## 1
Amino acid sequence: MEKDILILAIESSCDETAAAVVKNGREVLSNVISSQISLHALYGGVVPEIASRKHIEKINQVIEEALRVAGVSLFQMDAIAVTYGPGLVGALLVGVSAAKAISFATGIPLIGVHHIEGHISANYIENKELEPPFICLVASGGHSHLVEVRGYGEYTIIGRTRDDAAGEAFDKVARAIGLGYPGGPKIDSLSREGNPKAIHFPRAKVVGSEYDFSFSGLKSSVLNYLNGCRMRGEEPVAADVAASFQKAVIDVLTEHSLHAVRELGYDKFAIAGGVASNSSLRDTFEKRCAQEKIRFYHPSPILCTDNAAMIGAAGYYEYIGGVRSGLDLNAVPNLRLGER
Ligand code: KG4
Ligand code: ZN
């Protein structure tokens, strides 16, 4: 039997300080997440300076906790995987510096991981049979990408947002309805009480780029609708606005994604990123993929939003592919997928 590979993974690209221990890329021994959401909610969004400071306070505790829960010692680790981009530079630097310090002190190899590669790899954890190639929709607060996963560590971005990311649109619309931050989960639950057909919001297509997305027109349309109501002295029905907006986002994400899956001849499709935890999005893809005989994969909600287990899964495949980072590894806020 081959030796087990244990990865200590660290994630600090935005507002979660997270560490995990992952065995052989697919078995999570611990997944510790210290969320700063309640802190940033006071300001209606993530404040980068506060995020960096909080990461510094929490990072060592979170790493120690991940090792303790997994019941392993640092010296049993085969590699330390850390998100080095994309993300907030000050936030990324905390995780990268911690990982470099541990690697330097112990001699354990260091592996820099792309945050989006982590989101995609979250699918490997609970779907043991999933192997590339497949198409993955990554929809988070900072990204909306359609990715061809050609192999482990081999990616081609075939579609991207031209303006707002899907999660960003959720957050901005939620703020306009008065729901607060983060908007995604709040719109998700309020939508259950609303009528998704009550208001027709636009479904944008990007001319000449059929797999690309655009959400800023939709967001403006919701804001105009709310202003129109208020100018007429009417109170908008928040649940109907939420449900109609959410339906418009989901329609665009499903149509573009399944169009790509069909046209490029794939039979497997996965979703990832914070927006992938949306209950209606998951139900819609579940139904549509069953109708179209496409195998559909998605992580549990806790593995959709930022976490370190997904970085451990991605780090494992980089490790067995021979990737190692030097102690000169730096945070790269606009790191592109597939680049080193
Ligand atoms: O992947 P993630 O945790 O962080 C980034 O890498 O950006 O995604 C966070 C985003 C936020 O915009 C949040 O509002 C959205 O994911 N989100 C959701 C849901 N849960 C989180 N959007 C829609 N429905 C949800 N249930
Ligand atoms: Zn993320």
Note: The CA atoms of residues 194 and 240 lie 4 Å apart.
## 2
Amino acid sequence: MIGIMGAMTEEIEPILEYMDDLKTEQIGQNRYHTGTIGKKAVAAAYSRIGKVNAAVTASVLIERFGIEKLLFSGVAGAINKRLHIGDLIYASTLVQHDVDITAFGHPLGFIPETGDFFASDQALNAIAEEVALKLKIPLGSGVIATGDQFIADEKKKRWIAEKYKADAVEMEGAAVACVCNAFNVPFFVLRAISDAADMDAEFNFDAFLKSSAAISADFVINMVEML
Ligand code: ADE
């Protein structure tokens, strides 16, 4: 079983459209959809926004649905100037930019017995590169910084860029990475850019959420077919 996750309904709806034999089950406050994409068994769900919600859904997918790998699809704010609206980036590593235990001498983002930067699965990343090559879709990779904040401010954006060398920012990826790491489940986090985490971010997010979410979902569907 392959797990596919998004944070918002707009991120998962395009995946459900590709799934056959759909069955839906409610667990807690989320709906989990099982079915197939081609010959592959899939469990898909959106978590709702933020790290805690994402951790709940990733845990349920792993523990209740027995997924063997997790693919996350969604949108992100660009930090790296080379990323524009609609561009795809997958996480090579992810970090929680809002974790701060520096008072005890730990580096920013670091949690004892957990760590800071989570590396995504290299085999899944290689499949993504193959899909991009085959379909001639430009695909970037880099550091994705996650926090329970919608970033719409140049100063905060620059701070995240400096402290974490982040290329994109969002609100779930590192939580999913943390859960998958804890359960030893390979994971892949893909994001299409919806905004530049700047003063126009709220406007652009609303304008481009749907189109960028669809770009990311299409790519993930192509990946599932190659798994
Ligand atoms: N997801 C998409 N854009 C974002 C932003 N600017 N900040 C946090 N998460 C996002």
Note: The beta strands are 2-6, 20-27, 30-37, 40-46, 69-78, 88-96, 118-119, 139-146, 168-170, 187-195.
